[in-house]
Design goal:
The complex is a heterodimer of chains A (about 280) and B (about 280). Chain A is an all-alpha fold and about 280 residues long. The longest helix of chain B is centred in the last third of the chain and has 16 residues. Classes of the chains: A mainly alpha (about 280), B alpha/beta (about 280). Chains A and B meet through helix 8 and helix 9 of A and helix 2, strand 6 and helix 4 of B.
């Protein structure tokens, strides 16, 4: 029945029909897969052959080390991770907020002269650029930089989290500010409110819940990141995991990793519950 | 405020003309209703009066100032004397009703005053005028209520209270009654006319011809051009048929673009834009 050249082609199902474009896309994906498998020496057989070592590693983790000393180390590690992530998110938010405000395009420039537009564009692009730099460098690289500059410990880790959080939050904040319903804001500018006033009373109140939700989420991400930062010497539970690994103290590693998982899950739940309320 | 004058104003969006060579003079203290089918350019006309849309050609004179050649500062000063009220209320839903009303006077504040008003919270920032305005529209007890928690009619009254606080010299009412009940309509119209009696020019964009007939002067737009300008008595059935000819709502009922009014006219009112402008989108 299917005749491709009728005037009213059939509607078809959800799966796209044959077309040169989709075939090309499929071929591209297949090609890239082969290329990447070759480039990474990806080998299922080797993975299966290596199970012996993995088994040994896992079995040596049990029973986990629940001695008082280990538990105490776990407690300090977790607390430190928590403190790093919280402070990182807070500092990040504090830096992100003004930058995102500057990085929000105001539409109310109708009829503005070229010079005025240029003047408005300068802070916009500067803050966007700064935020992009903060964000596109991963926090673990920031941690390396700060560890080199300030030495080992949780302080450089906190700074690393703060800088990366500022970049991520700044971008998300300004996107929230721009996505806010425009009409109330325009209603304010149309009756003589300055850009600053329209921002303060029009955009900001509409974006506030979004900000809180995003910041909580970033804190969540920071907890996960903070466990890794220890691997480059930037404090937190990761540092203790690394040390125990190097000492082949696998039972202790088991305790620390288990505690990390529990904390991450708890924070996820907690933050998700709050964010659900904010969504209203 | 001295009058409003549009001279050969044309506005286009992506090559499609929304207004073509519109010339319109409104004297001080006048009341004017603007009617026309959806897409006729009514809202664009209003947006041109606050410089909220880029002008293709022509001039817009408001209160003796060439609107599109003002500096940003002077533009702000002029806009402060223009009050707006919309179909979709356009209040900030997260702020309390009282704060939304007080935004009527925010234009006159300096940066410091603005910050103080921002941080002082819903109650401390409420001046006597805000309270009085809320009393006047019968929402005196709602000052602290989140605007989003108010009904549509109440929100439109809050928007009117904002006008009362602002005391503008030019009121632009863009479909103010399209989304509110008849009682609120009367109440809002009454307040707008009251402000007009105190000297403000009142321009109202209306989809309801019956309400428009209560204005001493009616201007009709069709495809971006002024096709009628005169007292409502001259607004005959024939004129209305011409004004609304070709409206998609008319066409839906038949292929005769010449006579849509006869079909809708039975109820004596047009509800052309209902539900199309994102009303109650918050």
């Amino acid at each position: 029945m299917a005749s491709p050249h009728t005037e009213h082609p059939g509607i078809g199902g959800a799966v796209p029909r044959f077309s040169w474009k989709s075939s090309l896309a499929v071929l591209t994906v297949l090609g890239l897969t082969g290329y990447s498998v070759a480039g990474t020496n990806f080998n299922i057989v080797e993975l299966l052959r290596g199970t012996g070592a993995a088994e040994r590693f896992v079995s040596e983790m049990f029973p986990p080390d629940l001695s008082v000393a280990t538990l105490r180390a776990m407690g300090t590690g977790i607390l430190e991770t928590f403190q790093m992530s919280f402070l990182g998110a807070l500092l990040g938010a504090a830096v992100a907020f003004p930058l995102s405000a500057l990085g929000t395009q105001e539409i109310a420039t109708v009829g503005a002269s070229r010079g005025e537009r240029l003047l408005l564009a300068v802070p916009y692009h500067l803050s966007r650029m700064l935020l992009n730099v903060f964000r596109s460098v991963p926090d673990i690289l920031w941690a390396l930089v700060f560890v080199v500059a300030l030495g080992l410990g949780p302080f450089p880790g906190t700074l690393a989290l703060a800088v990366h959080s500022a970049g991520v939050l700044g971008k998300l904040y300004s996107e929230t500010l721009e996505a806010v319903p425009a009409r109330p804001v325009q209603a304010l500018t149309a009756t003589g409110a300055s850009d600053f006033q329209a921002f303060l009373f029009g955009r900001l109140p509409q974006a506030m819940n979004g900000f809180a939700s995003l910041t909580l989420y970033q804190w969540e991400c920071n907890i996960r990141s903070a466990t890794i930062l220890g691997f480059v010497g930037a404090g937190g539970i990761g540092q203790q995991i690394l040390i125990s690994m190097n000492l082949f103290d696998y039972p202790k590693v088991a305790t620390l990793v288990g505690a990390t998982i529990v904390v991450v899950l708890l924070v996820d739940r907690f933050s998700a519950a709050i964010r659900r309320r904010l969504a209203y | 405020m001295r009058g409003v004058l549009l001279e050969d104003v044309s506005v286009g969006f992506d090559g499609v003309a929304a207004l073509s060579d519109v010339t319109l003079q409104v004297e001080a203290g006048e009341q004017l209703a603007v009617i026309g089918a959806s897409g006729a350019g009514k809202s664009t006309l209003f947006r041109a009066l606050t410089r909220s849309v880029a002008l293709g050609s022509g001039r817009v004179i408001v209160g003796g100032h060439d609107l599109y050649s003002l500096s940003r500062r002077r533009l702000g000063e002029l806009r402060r004397r223009i009050g707006t009220i919309y179909q979709a209320y356009n209040l900030v839903p997260q702020l309390s009703a009282g704060v939304n009303v007080s935004l009527g006077e925010v234009g006159g504040m300096g940066s410091l005053g603005t910050l103080r008003a921002f941080f002082a919270g819903p109650d401390a920032g409420l001046s006597k005028r805000v309270r009085a305005a809320l009393e006047e529209i019968g929402l005196g007890d709602k000052a602290g209520v989140r605007t989003a928690d108010l009904s549509g009619g109440q929100q439109q009254r809050v928007a009117v209270a904002r006008l009362l606080v602002q005391r503008p010299d030019l009121i632009l009412a863009d479909e103010p009654f399209a989304a509110v009940d008849p009682v609120t309509t009367e109440r809002v119209l009454e307040t707008l006319l009251h402000l007009n009696r105190e000297g403000a020019i009142l321009l109202a964009n209306l989809h309801d011809v019956e309400v428009a007939r209560r204005f001493p002067r009616v201007v009709a737009l069709r495809e971006g051009r002024v096709v009628f300008d005169g007292p409502p008595e001259l607004l005959t059935e024939d004129e209305l048929a011409k004004i609304y000819a070709g409206d998609p709502h008319g066409l839906e009922n038949g292929e005769d673009p010449e006579f849509p009014y006869a079909r809708h006219g039975i109820e004596g009112s047009f509800r052309l834009t209902e539900g199309r402008d994102g009303v109650s989108s918050h």
